[in-house]
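so my prof wants the structure for this chain in the tokens format not the other one, which i didnt know existed until like an hour ago. anyway here's the sequence
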Amino acid sequence: MKKIVVSVSPGICGFPCQVIATRTSKRAVAVEITGSECEMINELAAGVTKITIRDLFTPHSKNLIFKHTEQAHCHLCCPVPIAIIKSSEVALELALPQDVQIHFK
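here's what i got, hopefully its the right format
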């Protein structure tokens, strides 16, 4: 099982976390979000525990990850949902591991 660990430092909220995506089959990963003190992220973590390849390619408006993100009332620009997607893609060998950054100047 391929295990990918991503650290997320979401910014001003001050609630960092780790997203762990562990490949469980050729087309699925188990997702765990740890270390967050954010109630919304913990609610998201409870709803998003398994991701399939189909989930990764479903449009935003129908996407399981974004539906759970909305139900958990996460802030619109929270980077944790994207970290779930990126770590799942890497665990399924659909993408290479590469850091993503946003810098203000």
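also thought this was worth mentioning. DSSP finds four helices and four strands in the chain.
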